[in-house]
TrEMBL record:
Keyword match Thylakoid: no
Family annotation (Pfam families): NosL (PF05573)
Gene3D superfamilies listed in its UniProt record: 3.30.70.2050
Protein name: Nitrous oxide reductase
Signal peptide location: 1-22
Keywords, comma-separated and alphabetical: Signal
SUPFAM superfamilies hit by this protein: NosL/MerB-like (SSF160387)
PROSITE patterns associated with the record: PROKAR_LIPOPROTEIN (PS51257)
């Protein structure tokens, strides 16, 4: 009986190790971020402000997905541009007010050099256009759709510390 217990314990330990090695999940999902602990995949700084956190999920292989977390919407887009090998299946941003995850392709964005974001990209996302319009008016910013945001990356924004275009 004692031998069976040892074998069972060994089996459980090995299965835990093996499952820890298996990367990815069966469904694309926003990254789970531990604020003040997890680091941005682009700049390697600690993610601390949920208002600006972003992420994307990419395909590792058939039916397997990996989510990456970023401290700034601009860093997410820069990272994606630097990693064309990532087959991105979902983009995520936090709503500036509720801090809930949004489908980034459906959000409305405010871009302003007066909006101080973790890496200086000056971008905030909103689920509600009226809320975005208020912040844009307060910060002398512009409203952008996802398509406009991605297309506009061909020209750097003055608030970007990187001074270069970040996406295709």
């Amino acid at each position: 009986m004692r031998q069976i217990g040892k074998i069972l314990l060994l089996f459980l330990a090995l299965s835990g190790i093996l499952s820890g090695c298996a990367r990815g999940s069966a469904e694309p999902a926003p990254p789970e971020i531990r604020y003040g602990e997890d680091i941005c995949q682009e700049c390697q700084m600690i993610i601390s402000d949920p208002r600006f956190a972003a992420g994307y999920a990419y395909e590792l292989g058939p039916g397997r997905y990996q989510s990456l977390a970023f401290d700034d919407i601009g860093d997410m887009l820069a990272h994606a541009a630097r990693h064309p090998e990532h087959v991105i299946v979902a983009w995520y941003v936090h709503d500036y007010h509720s801090q809930e995850w949004l489908d980034a392709t459906q959000a409305i964005y405010v871009r302003s050099s007066a909006l101080h974001t973790p890496m200086g990209h000056g971008l905030a996302a909103f689920a509600d256009r009226a809320a975005a319009e208020i912040l844009a008016a307060e910060r002398e910013g512009e409203l952008l759709t996802w398509e406009e945001l991605v297309a506009g990356l061909a020209r750097p924004h003055p608030s970007s510390p990187h001074g270069e275009a970040h996406a295709k």
